[in-house]
Amino acid sequence: MVHYDNLGGDFMVTVQDIATPRLQNYLEFMRDPIAFFTRVQPIGDVISLKTGISPTFVVNSPEAIREILIRQDQSFIKGRTTTVLQRTVGKGLLTTEGERHATQRKYIQPAFYKDALERYAHAIIDETEKLGERLEHEQEVDMHTVMMRLTLSIITRTMFSTNVSEEEKELADAVTTTIEQSVKILFSPVMIPASVPTKANLKHKEAIQTLEAMIEEVLMAAKDHPEWFEDSLLGMMMAVTDENGNRLRDREVRDQMMTMLLAGHETTANLLGWLFAEIARHPEVERRLIDELETAELRGNPFNWMRELPYTQQIIDEGLRLYPPAWLIYRELDEPVEMFGRSFKEGSTFMICPYAVHRNEEVFPNPSAFDPDRFAAGNKYAPFSYIPFGGGSRSCIGSRFAMLEATLILTVLYKKFLFHNVRLQAPVPEPLISLRIKDGWPMKVEKRG
């Protein structure tokens, strides 16, 4: 797919038209976007979908992805995804562009530094152990629901210093509703304004109000007792000042909290759902995981456990390859650009599907197999052939937090339990804002001896 030019020493990226008719492509994409991107992945580096007025392209090759996410980054915006997500999260880190995005990233970044992650590690262990106590009384659970609630309790505790155990189900349901409604809008050919009182819009609005009520309560507490929140992202945001000494407006703090609620917990919950399902489908992987957990000392700050658990992290890396939560990266040109040996006009849309890119046979032989040994020490992959956290200025700010969280959750739960799939068939992906297992995933819980 990526052709090396021996004379110039550079990669050449080719752009070619898709052979199938436009209507067929559109219907296939709407019916099953994952299947569509997987089908077109081997066709070429960059594929024109021949969409006429608004040119749309699918980007497959690592070099083309690098060009868009790194070299030409300043010429792109997130476009339609921003418009849709702003209905829920407002103007937070996920939806701002340019200088404003860079400023927001700068004041949020310290919440993911090593000293902060060391504090969060204790909270992750504590919340997971509470779940473990509840699982001792369960025989079968829906793993998606269980992980959604666990990661919600972790994100609110670490980022907002808040315990939401009493409202956990209500808040998790509200997050699910906002995600499901957002993806319907994102893929709809007609975007109905949020102000129109359709059944879907009213349902979406009610879910947002549920989340905002919790955020409003936490914000008021943070103003009255700032000392309670000093070590959290919320505390950091409350202390931020601009060059004139002005603090962040409540609205901006609210938008960042909404962003963290949606982007910071649902993605990890979905990844974990896939991991539990795949570990149960692969007894050898499960055995090696248990062996590692049994032989590791796991003392001191749980953040430092990571270095003792390389195979656990290989499992997570392989889960991120096969089932990247951020399964679609969407970019729109904000100005005309020359790249790949041709001109692209303003408004041109480029879609990068990590789910499909990670199934490139030339990079990952037998790509549909779940094989954590792909990520054993010493194995290297070309830059941008593996992009579970995106790349460039908009790469996931919480990637280290996500890896820490997933590692510690697997560690705590597999030291106490084994999990068995109830369904015989393989789980089916449901591509929403994040990549979920369709129709949940029931699992039997077995206490280890």
UniProtKB/TrEMBL annotation:
Q: What family does the Swiss-Prot or TrEMBL record give for this protein?
A: Belongs to the cytochrome P450 family.
One Pfam family recorded for the sequence? p450
Domain of life, per lineage: Bacteria
Source lineage:
Bacteria, Bacillati, Bacillota, Bacilli, Bacillales
Keyword Oxidoreductase listed? The answer is yes
Protein name as annotated = Cytochrome P450
Identify the keywords attached in UniProt to this record, alphabetized: Heme, Iron, Metal-binding, Monooxygenase, Oxidoreductase
Q: Which InterPro entries match?
A: Cyt_P450 (IPR001128), Cyt_P450_CS (IPR017972), Cyt_P450_E_grp-I (IPR002401), Cyt_P450_sf (IPR036396), Cytochrome_P450_Monoox (IPR050196)
> What SUPFAM superfamilies does this protein's entry cite?
Cytochrome P450
